[in-house]
Amino acid sequence: MHRVNLAENIYYVGFNDRKTHLFENIWPIPKGVSYNSYLIVDEKIALIDTVERSYIDDYLDQIEVLTEGRPVDYLIINHMEPDHSGALKAVISKYPNITLVGNKKTFEMAQNFYQVTQQNIEVYDDSELSLGKTNLQFTTIPMVHWPETMVTFESTNKILFTGDACGSYGTLDGGIFDDELDYTQYDEEIVRYFSNIVGKYCAHTQRALKKIAKYEIKMIAATHGMIWRSHIDFILDKYEKLSTYQTEPGAVIVYGSMYGNTAKMAEIIARQLAVRGIKNIRVYDSSKTHPSFIISDIFKYKALILGSAAYNNAMFPTVETLLTTIKHMGIKDHLLGIFGSFSWNGGGVKNLEKFAEEIKWEVVGQPLEEKGAMKPDHFSRYVDLANAIADKILA
Ligand code: FEO
Question: Which cofactor does it need (predicted)?
């Protein structure tokens, strides 16, 4: 195996998952994902997080080689979600004298998930742990992504181990550090990972960014995706923008349409936005595209224009699923346009209006609704809606 050094005595021990279709059994990962763990070999030996359970055998084998058979003294648990704690019990079985390092919530979760009552060291903000010449400092970052999450700072090489924060979907196809690959090609997967996994916790992410500002960071080692050492500002700026809902000029148009009538309205709106000079326009059929991808673009662009046919006197089901996800994510500060169609009793636009009341975004123009197909003399209504939204985007 290749030895991948972050520093002379600090190793990457990670695995690429190209088999799993749905991360957390919800989010599509067509480009896979990596599970990153790290090993520090000093007078004492420490692991930082583990990996998903499918990789236990290879994980333990690699640790055995890197430690040259010495026992691991500490398992530092930055995050307890099972994609990182999956090897916890196996590590304890192999190294029965290991000490777990985490905070109060970490150990509650270890008990709840794995019935683990291993000896432990409870840490707080600014607690330190010496491994010999290596000194580690801890800072809690609750809800990025779970209540127990924390970061670990290695002060000699100034490496910040961040758990899920600054992570990404996408396997590491040879390159592991940001300067060994074209990091810009991961941009979509970074945003999608943030929006899907961390996006609900933007206020917490802001607090976390402020807390870690005390560190002089030379490297960011997350539990997913590349290790950042040459483009640290890129990933920190990305997190700052996303967690403060800073958007680019652009619009996402999503529709649910059985026979194409609502889809035609979406096409008119999209075309008129383009006529007005909006270049970032994404049009999605909610029955085809998973909310994972749509949510990601909603985080990126200022306007969301929603169309729904009525279905059983309610909203179109796949639009409803998307809106439930948006509400759960608590996305803020967007422009909203509404349109749709019905055959006899409505339910699409009516429920989109309820969504608008709940989400409290700025509704632009009047909601537009057709009985059956769009009438030719209504064309200008959709052009007007697109113009009103373009005016706001370009303002
Ligand atoms: Fe990658 Fe929240 O676990």
Answer: FMN
Ligand 1 centroid – CA 168 distance (Å): 10
Verify whether ligand 1 is closer than 6 Å to residue 290 (CB atom).
no
Ligand 1 pocket member 17 (CB < 6 A) = no
Report the amino acid identity of residue 146: W
Instruction: Give Cβ neighbours of residue 63 (< 8 Å, ≥ 6 apart).
Output: 13, 39, 47, 72
| DSSP character at residue 86 | T
Closest CA to 27 of 165, 258, 199: 199
Instruction: Give per-residue pLDDT as tens, 210-240.
Output: 999 999 999 999 999 999 999 999 999 999 9
Domain 5-243 classification at class level:
alpha beta
Q: Which CATH superfamily is domain 248-394 in?
A: Flavodoxin domain (3.40.50.360)
- Which residues is 340 bridged to in the sheet? 308, 369
CA angle 287, 24, 333 (to 5 degrees): 60
Where in the sequence of the chain do the CATH 3.40.50.360 domains occur? 248-394
Angle formed by the axes of helices 291-300 and 317-329, to 10°?
A: 50
Query: Ligand 1 within 6 A of 148 CB?
Result: no
